[in-house]
């Protein structure tokens, strides 16, 4: 009985091995007969490149890419990219796309990173305002201003999730993630927000609150009043004083004039 079982197991093993061998043979045969993939050239970065950098021939190289699978907006010739500036940093071997390049007339540097209709505005900061140097290019911040209101000190969030364009003259974050300290931070804002930020910086004290780039929700928190913070009570709005009523003018003089049989009454102002 044991011998029969051994023979049966051996037979099954041989069948399985034969089927596996057949499968491998078929796959290898199909691979040999398959049509080879045709490759085309795509322009890519030869090294890490910075935002605002004007591309030169040495910054670019051609890499092989399957035909028909090229990224949308890619280039096949390096000369089509030379002389144009990047509006976003790229890493080595990353394809250069039309969406990552400024027009040739846009120039180079930080200016190419400012979208149409937006403004770059610099504000003075210190280590406290700039969150100990962790406000770096590419991060997002909320802008808070503290000033004196009708009931005393008040702090209010005037702008939310504002993009940081540069810290000092650096438009790139440190590659190791180290904090960057500088007396000036440049923010990307709308023209209306630029007015708010300028007024806040000149009339009060601003602070930057660092936030996650993926957190784009508008919180719009209510302002915090000093009287509430320190005295524990809500500020009381003072009613405007009513204008003092003007005194009524004195009654006019009245004089009767008699001319013969006629009586006439005349009035004169009592100034």
Give the helix/strand layout.
Blueprint: H1 2-33, E1 39-45, E2 60-66, E3 119-124, E4 140-149, E5 152-167, E6 184-189, H2 191-203, E7 205-211, E8 224-225, H3 226-231, E9 253-259, E10 262-268
Antiparallel strand pairs: 1-2, 3-6, 4-5, 4-7, 5-6, 5-8, 9-10
Descriptive notes:
The chain has helices at residues 2-33, 191-203, 226-231, and strands at residues 39-45, 60-66, 119-124, 140-149, 152-167, 184-189, 205-211, 224-225, 253-259, 262-268. The mean pLDDT is 84. A hairpin with a 2-residue loop joins β4 and β5 (152-167). It folds into 3 domains: 1-34; 39-112, Antifreeze-like/N-acetylneuraminic acid synthase C-terminal domain (Type Iii Antifreeze Protein Isoform Hplc 12); 116-231, no CATH class. It is built from 3 helices and 10 strands, in the order αββββββαββαββ. It is elongated, with a radius of gyration of 39 Å. The strands form 3 sheets. Strands 3, 4, 5, 6, 7 and 8 form a 6-stranded antiparallel beta sheet that branches. With 271 residues, it is α+β, with helices and mostly antiparallel strands.
């Amino acid at each position: 009985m044991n011998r029969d079982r051994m023979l049966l197991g051996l037979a099954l093993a041989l069948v399985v091995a034969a089927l596996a061998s057949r499968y491998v043979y078929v796959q290898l045969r199909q691979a040999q007969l398959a049509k080879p993939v045709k490759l085309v050239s795509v322009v890519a970065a030869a090294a890490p490149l910075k935002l605002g950098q004007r591309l030169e021939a040495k910054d670019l190289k051609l890499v092989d890419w399957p035909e028909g699978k090229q990224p949308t907006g890619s280039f096949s010739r390096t000369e089509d990219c030379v002389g144009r500036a990047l509006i976003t940093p790229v890493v080595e071997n990353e394809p250069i796309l039309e969406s990552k390049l400024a027009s040739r007339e846009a120039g180079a540097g930080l200016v190419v990173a400012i979208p149409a209709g937006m403004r770059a505005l610099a504000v003075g900061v210190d280590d406290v305002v700039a969150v100990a140097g962790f406000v770096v290019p590419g991060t997002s911040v909320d802008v808070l201003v503290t000033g004196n209101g009708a009931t005393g000190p008040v702090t209010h969030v005037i702008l939310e999730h504002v993009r940081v364009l540069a810290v000092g003259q650096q438009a790139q974050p440190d590659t190791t993630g180290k904090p960057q300290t500088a007396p000036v931070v440049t923010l990307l804002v709308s023209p209306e927000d630029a007015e708010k930020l300028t007024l806040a910086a000149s009339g009060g004290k601003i602070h930057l609150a660092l936030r996650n780039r993926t957190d784009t929700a508008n919180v719009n928190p209510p302002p915090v009043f000093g009287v509430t913070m320190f005295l524990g009570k809500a500020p009381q709005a003072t009613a405007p004083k009513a204008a003092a009523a003007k005194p009524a003018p004195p009654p006019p003089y009245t004089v009767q004039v008699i001319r013969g049989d006629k009586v006439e009454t005349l009035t004169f102002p009592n100034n």
